[in-house]
Amino acid sequence: MKPSSPRAAAVVLALLILAVGLAACGSKSENTKGEPEKLTLDLDFYPNPDHAGIYMAQEEGFFKEAGLDVTINSPSDPAAPLKEVAAGRADLAITYEPEVMLAHEKGLDVVAVAALVNRPLTSLMWLKKSGIKRVADLKGKTVSYAGIPYQEAFLKTILTRAKVPVSSVKAVNVGFGLLPSLISGSAQAMLGGYSNVEGVDLRERGKEPVITPVDQLGVPTYDELVIVARRSTLEEDGERIRLFISALRRGTEAAAANPKAATEAILAANTDLQPKLAEAQVKATLPLLNARTAGKPYGWMNPQEWETFSGWMRDEELITGQPKPAELLSNAYLVDEIPE
């Protein structure tokens, strides 16, 4: 419909200009000098396939397009990232849902703002040649684990559900030696490895592993990898976080569409990785990174599932109380899908 007068035309033009300006608002972050906003992200571990979406977003310039200058740090101590965020020395960090609950118990000022992997990767594994067919067969066997208290509680829950006396299974803390313990036979099963990392490693070695994620064995489901921010700065940093998550979504989708490029991005970030193994692990990881909950935006965390899992942690005496989901997570910084 055409405007009926020059005055009406001017009004329409002004409204269009305003609409464009509003649409652009929040699509890019810049400081007062017009430069990209700096943002630091601490990984949970050295660069690996779990971080494919992050490095793809960096490689493809999606963070830069969002007006962000993102610095990615690898921790020398896996326990450090949460503390760095709580202290304000890092803007964001990758960690695990159980660790968010333990941090809340300690009074650390952190909250999860997005799920990177929205299901458990931690798995119980044994080799086909071991003759173990089911959890009940672990009676009298040795199970290695990484020394993480809640993973020891995972094993207790798994054994109890299978009606195996916990005392009949020898649990051995092997730290980072999970794979060697299983391959050497010093342990007949291991708990703590990831289905997409250690599980793939075992398959690539031709070891025929039997891999079962813990949520299929009685442990409540949870978000394996989450991104956390400092709660007390969310209000002032909210737009930067939203732009980061939006760019990460783009990076994750680009990685899923081009696994070869995603593998190259990870290998460039960590030259210690074996290319063939990394390729297989990335292939197994991308569907997990790109998984969505129907009708929910990328990164969405299910508050009910968090409440159930925190109840399990309380019952296992890993935490003393049961915090409300709103104390642990926020979905407020997620971005809905952009219509085609």
Question: What this model shows, in words?
Answer:
This protein is α/β, with parallel strands linked by helices. The chain has helices at 6-24, 52-59, 62-65, 80-86, 97-105, 149-161, 178-184, 198-204, 234-257, 259-269, 275-289, 303-315, 325-328, and strands at 37-42, 68-73, 92-95, 110-117, 122-127, 142-145, 170-173, 189-194, 209-213, 225-230. Helices cover 41% and strands 16% of the residues. The strands form 2 sheets. It has a 5-stranded mixed beta sheet, with helices on both faces. The chain has a 5-stranded mixed beta sheet with strand order 7-6-8-5-9, with helices on both faces. The longest helix is centred in the C-terminal third of the chain and has 24 residues, at 234-257. The protein has 2 domains: 37-119 and 223-328, Periplasmic binding protein-like II (D-Maltodextrin-Binding Protein, domain 2), CATH 3.40.190; 122-216, D-Maltodextrin-Binding Protein, domain 2. The relative contact order is 0.17. Strand 6, helix 6 and strand 7 (170-173) form a beta-alpha-beta unit. Helix 2 (52-59) crosses helix 9 (234-257) and helix 10 (259-269) crosses helix 11. The two termini are 26 Å apart. The radius of gyration is 23 Å and the shape is globular.
Features of the shown structure:
340 residues, alpha/beta, D-Maltodextrin-Binding Protein, domain 2, 2 domains, five-stranded mixed sheet, 13 helices, 10 strands, globular
Overall tally of domains:
2
CATH topology of the largest domain: D-Maltodextrin-Binding Protein, domain 2
**What would the average pLDDT be, to the nearest integer?**
90
CATH superfamily of the largest domain: Periplasmic binding protein-like II
Count the E strands: 10
Strand content: 15-25%
State Rg.
Answer: 23 Å
Count of DSSP helices? Answer: 13
Judged by helices, strands and strand pairing, the structural class is: alpha/beta
Order of helices and strands: HEHHEHEHEEEHEHEHEEHHHHH
Highest-level CATH class of the largest domain: Alpha Beta
CATH architecture descriptor name of the largest domain: 3-Layer(aba) Sandwich
Could you give the order of strands across the largest sheet?
2-1-3-10-4
Straight-line distance between termini: 26 Å
